[in-house]
Amino acid sequence: MAELFQVTAPLLVREADGTQRVMAERFLHPEGLLYFELFWHVQRPAAAGIHLLRGAIEGEGPWRVGGAVIRVLGCLATDPGPADAWAAWQDYLAQGAPGYPDAAAIRALARAQGAILTD
């Protein structure tokens, strides 16, 4: 199917404990996958919205990382709560994303969290 870091559709992660989050940003990490959830930057501390999934990245969609499953986000009928959150995120971005860090700041934060970046 597709390589996880090339998919442009929104991705939903269901962690081993059942927690579901939509990914705003994702990065390769030596221990697995580092991702930032939607609106991570307004959480206090912001790091509460940054998560590390430990394990090998497996599959071609859906993907597995440790006990987590990552798949393309469904529609309102399939994933009502996460789809609503994604719609709010898209609206926020369309308004210019006030207060959202720029790409360089996000990459620096990911790098500080141990992400593997090629730049």
Explain what the structure shows.
The structure is a single chain. This protein has a 7-stranded antiparallel β-sheet. The chain has one domain. The chain contains 2 helices and 7 strands, in the order βββββββαα. The chain has helices at 80-94, 103-112, and strands at 11-14, 20-29, 32-37, 50-54, 57-59, 63-65, 68-72. It has 119 residues and is α+β, with helices and mostly antiparallel strands. β6 and β7 (68-72) form a beta hairpin. Helix content is 21%, strand content 30%. The mean pLDDT is 91.
Describe this structure in a few short sentences:
Helices cover about 20% and strands about 30% of the residues. With about 120 residues, the protein is α+β, with helices and mostly antiparallel strands. The longest helix is centred in the last third of the chain and has 15 residues, at about 80-95.
Radius of gyration over C-alpha positions, nearest whole angstrom? 14 Å
What is the helix/strand order? EEEEEEEHH
Unreliable spans are none
Percent of residues in β-strands = 25-35%
Which whole number gives the mean pLDDT? Answer: 91
End-to-end Cα distance, whole Å, is 26 Å
Main pleated sheet: 7 strands, antiparallel
Number of domains: 1
Q: Give the structural class.
A: alpha+beta
Strand order of the largest sheet: 4-3-2-1-7-6-5
Q: Helical region count?
A: 2
